[in-house]
Amino acid sequence: SQQGEEDPQALSIQEGENATMNCSYKTSINNLQWYRQNSGRGLVHLILIRSNEREKHSGRLRVTLDTSKKSSSLLITASRAADTASYFCKETSGSRLTFGEGTQLTVNP
Amino acid sequence: DAGITQSPRHKVTETGTPVTLRCHQTENHRYMYWYRQDPGHGLRLIHYSYGVKDTDKGEVSDGYSVSRSKTEDFLLTLESATSSQTSVYFCAISESSRSGNTGELFFGEGSRLTVL
Q1: pLDDT value at A2 more than 50
Q2: Chain B contact for A54, CB < 8 A?
Q3: Structure confidence at residue A65 (pLDDT)
Q4: Nearest to A100 by CA among A22, A42, A48, A39
Q5: What does the alpha-carbon distance between residue B105 and residue A24 come to, in Å, rounded to a whole number?
């Protein structure tokens, strides 16, 4: 399987803390993307990092990519209760668009 | 929000009956996808389309067929529904660009199918 795999499966933190989740993949990629899914909703694209990039920022989000380790991390700083959701990584290699199983993040007020 | 509409949003049916889910987009995006989401399995690609009448199989295509006769519509058909096809189905779209498809997906709100 080429799917990305998120770690941990579940993460519970207090509001204001930082949340870090990781993604590993198995093959060469063109880019890697992170998505958020609120309960009962469709996925929403958060950020894309290309294979020749090592770090990217967007607001409170910071994504890193280590192609030698085939891994990526998503950091959410100063978390809020509204960040409670499932987070997925998705690798893009060729025409395959595969997802991991996600990290369930709970931010407690 | 990207203009993606899935219908029906909820459906309960019996084993052996045919089911068709519809995805309609107003974005004129070239690529359309059907995923299913199940606990413990994440999102798995069923079928995708890269243009009108151009479709290909994903990783879990058995028991499903698709059709795309117009840019805006992508239909997913279960010819004879089984209980293992109880799931939440998501349609997604993506645009092409001169540099190639970045793969950024825009999702519909999902269709919850229960097969009794």
Answers
A1: no
A2: no
A3: 96
A4: A22
A5: 20
- Domain range annotation of chain A: 5-108
- Are B91 and B75 spatial neighbours (Cβ–Cβ below 8 Å)? no
Taking the domains of chain B in order of start, what are their residue ranges? 4-115
Instruction: Report the C-alpha gap between A103 and A98 in whole angstroms.
Output: 15
Each residue of A11-67: pLDDT tens digit? 999 999 999 999 998 888 888 899 999 999 999 999 999 999 999 999 999 999 999
Phi, psi of A14, rounded to the nearest 5 degrees? -95, 150
Q: Provide CATH code, domain A5-108.
A: 2.60.40.10
| The one-letter amino acid at A108 | N
Inter-chain touch B109–A92, beta carbons under 8 Å: no
The domain made up of B4-115 has a fold known as: Immunoglobulin-like (2.60.40)
The first and second tokens of residue A33, run together, are 């993307």
| Pairs of residues, one from chain A and one from chain B, whose beta carbons lie less than 8 Å apart | 58
A3/B24 Cα distance (integer angstroms): 27
The answer to whether B45 faces chain A, any CB pair under 8 Å, is yes
